Amino acid sequence: MLRLFGYRGRRFAAALLPLLLAACGTTEPTQQARPAMWLIADEDTKIYMLGAMHALPSSTDWEGGKVADAVAASDELVMELSPAELANAGAVFQALAPRTEPLPMAKRLPAQALASYRALEASGGGFGGDALDDWAVMVLMGQRVAQKAELDSSNGVEARLTERFKDAGKRIGGLETAKDQLMFFETLDPATQRTLLTRSAEKSDEAVKDVKALTAAWGRGDVAALERVINEDVDTVPAARKAILTDRNRRWSAWVQKRLDQPGTVLMAVGAGHLVGSDGVPAMLEADGLKVTRVQ
User: Fold this and answer.
1) Whose CA is closest to 266, among 53, 28, 42?
2) Considering the domain boundaries, does residue 3 fall inside one?
3) Is residue 2 a part of any domain in this protein?
4) DSSP state of 204
5) 229 is in which domain, residue-wise?
6) In the prediction, which pLDDT does 28 show?
7) What is the pTM of this model?
8) What is the b/e burial string over 124-144, where b = at least 16 CB atoms within 10 angstroms of the residue's CB?
9) Facing residues of 293 across strands?
């Protein structure tokens, strides 16, 4: 889920909750995309690591090139969430999101941020934010931005890969549970949650433009641009970076190294923000002395 994961703090929300990115159709001409992908291998194992976007314009064609080769060669697909966990995530969100006591948004946000929040809310119906934790409000704001940007979850990387692997009768697994992912937010300290929410609201008028630029960089495989976008947000909120990016990337790096002990070919598709930068999974693997090759 991250991202994540542009929408300033909402990059975290969009990355962490692919299930909440509603599908919206678009009639734009087909756009070719070649997202970044890496390979780590030993004598009998290959693991492709593909940077994913959880939702994309339906006009985006990203399944060609080396991705098609990796899909055909792989025996197994591993994502952040398995299909079963993704299906359960909405219920988990509903259980964790409510506050113990309501708190009006007017008491949480400064005037400028509150005005921007109200404008985003008015664009498609209320969020019910008074009754929700700060992180949950941010998630719903991210959903609204995705809708306004005409992103389509059914064309997202995980959804399309799931179809391909199911049709081929290949294994599909996940690295985390839906509760794991939501608890990364739920357990952030209140000050960090409020900072993320405030930043999200303050910049919400720029969010659609930001997410389109982020999607374009992903489609070009421009990892430097992706790293700049991610760092723009998370470097200002260290506690969020540690919980939502660095710690998870470390666990996933350990998973990759352990998976190399089993023969076979695996396609690992996780949010693109987890694969770029000095604390991205490829960089962590290289720091441990393993050879990682960019193949697209």
Assistant:
1) 42
2) no
3) no
4) G
5) 10-23+34-294
6) 57
7) 0.90
8) eeebebeebbbbbbbbbbbbb
9) 39
Phi, psi of 76 (to 5 degrees): -150, 145
Residue 11 pLDDT: 46
- Pull the structure tokens for residue 136: 């949950």
Number of domains observed in the structure of the chain: 1
Selection from 143, 168, 166 nearest residue 82 by Cα:
166
Residue 158 belongs to a domain: yes
Query: What are 174's strand-pairing partners?
Result: 79
> pLDDT at position 2, please?
35
- The predicted model gives 2-19 an average pLDDT of 39
If DSSP states are collapsed to H, E and C, what string results for 99-149?
CCCCCCHHHCCCHHHHHHHHHHHHCCCCCCHHHECHHHHHHHHHHHHHHHC
Give the pLDDT of residue 288. 97
Who contacts 95 (Cβ-Cβ below 8 Å, separation ≥6)? none
At residue 29 the predicted structure's pLDDT band, cuts being 50, 70 and 90, is low
The dihedral of CA 231, 236, 241, 242: what is its sign? positive
